[in-house]
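Re: [ENG-882] Designed sequences occasionally contain unexpected residues at chain ends

Forwarding the minimal case from QA. Structure tokens:
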């Protein structure tokens, strides 16, 4: 274990042409473990190698002389704040469908392991609607038999989830719910009240009805943000490049605040606006300047991108720009218009949910 901290200094240095303010903690041993603290190295790749951002046990492999010499020469010194991430997302809720459990469960375990979070798995089966029409007792019996089969499968899948989680070594709990479709959102919302983050895995994201129930419950009836991952690879809470879809609205601002631990850890954050209009009331005379200044005060490395839609639509432009800048996460606010209007006419949120190729962090 590390001995007593022998010195602490606050320095402002130029790190690869980016001004970074950080608290430098010097330790009395060359190599040590410091749970929920910081990693320091003279090179970003070294820092990432010896201290994954999401790990709660950080290793620093650099002695005091090297740090002091780096400060003297004003060389780039990289710091990764592991504790910020680990402390923010301590409980992750992952609703998984009874018919597509394995992949979503695997990704939920992988994500929770990176931040040593408690993982709550909610196995959901949505009840078949009752038959309409007059087929008599035959149809009613078949319907009841189907529901009994669904409940039996639900119990079995919950046991599968428990077995996988026991092997993972994570802190966990598993619940199952057999919900009528109209009330599934409320059942999910009750569990989301006690989560720091709700995860929608690729199989759940590919099921529009199930994904909508999760969003309706977790995103709009609880304080937790939502991380939707449509990709086959596990999402990360240590993204290197993040795109913020910014429109100077409350939903976007709330999403940014909820995502601050991720943004602070990222190498580069692109505040992206489509067809911004400079007005004193909404986005200011320089669209993006206010949010960029806000993020910079939190130590976020910010690039502001104002793009014309050219008639291609906001969702299309956001996807294209995410590809252009190599973003591995998008942060955006959900449902800028009324939910009824979004449901009937579509909108950016629905388009992004239906066409997303990379993980999206949603706040509301």
């Amino acid at each position: 274990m590390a001995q007593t901290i022998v010195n602490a200094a606050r320095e402002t240095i130029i790190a690869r042409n980016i001004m970074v303010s950080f608290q430098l903690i010097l330790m009395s041993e060359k190599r040590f473990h410091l749970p929920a603290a910081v990693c320091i190295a003279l090179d970003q790749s070294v820092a990432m190698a010896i201290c994954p951002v999401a790990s709660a046990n950080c290793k620093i492999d650099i002695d005091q002389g090297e740090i002091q010499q780096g400060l003297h020469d004003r060389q780039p010194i990289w710091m990764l704040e592991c504790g910020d991430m680990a402390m923010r997302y301590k409980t992750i809720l992952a609703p998984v469908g009874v018919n597509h459990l394995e992949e979503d469960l695997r990704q939920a375990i992988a994500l929770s392991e990176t931040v040593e979070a408690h993982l709550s798995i909610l196995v959901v089966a949505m009840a078949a609607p009752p038959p309409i029409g007059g087929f008599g007792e035959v149809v009613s019996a078949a319907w009841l038999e189907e529901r009994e089969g669904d409940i039996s499968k639900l119990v079995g899948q919950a046991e599968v989830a428990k077995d996988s989680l026991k092997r993972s070594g994570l802190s966990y709990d598993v619940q199952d719910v057999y919900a009528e479709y109209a009330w599934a959102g409320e059942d999910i919302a009750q569990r989301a009240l006690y989560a720091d983050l709700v995860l929608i895995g690729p199989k759940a994201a590919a099921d529009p009805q199930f994904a909508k129930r999760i969003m309706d419950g977790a995103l709009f009836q609880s304080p937790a943000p939502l991380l939707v991952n449509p990709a086959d690879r596990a999402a990360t809470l240590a993204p290197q490049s993040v795109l913020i879809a910014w429109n100077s609205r409350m939903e976007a601002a709330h999403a940014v605040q909820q995502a601050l631990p991720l943004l602070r850890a990222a190498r580069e954050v692109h505040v992206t606006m489509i067809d911004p209009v400079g007005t004193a009331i909404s986005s200011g005379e320089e669209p993006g300047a206010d949010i960029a200044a806000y993020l910079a005060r939190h130590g976020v490395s910010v690039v502001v991108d104002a793009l014309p839609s050219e008639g291609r639509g906001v969702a299309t432009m956001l996807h294209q720009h995410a590809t252009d800048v190599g973003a591995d996460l998008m942060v955006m606010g959900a449902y800028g218009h009324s939910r009824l209007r979004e449901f009937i006419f579509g909108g950016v949120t629905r388009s992004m949910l239906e066409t997303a190729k990379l993980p999206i962090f949603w706040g509301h």
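QA comment: On inspection the terminal residues look reasonable. The longest helix spans residues 136-168. Proposing we downgrade this to a documentation issue.
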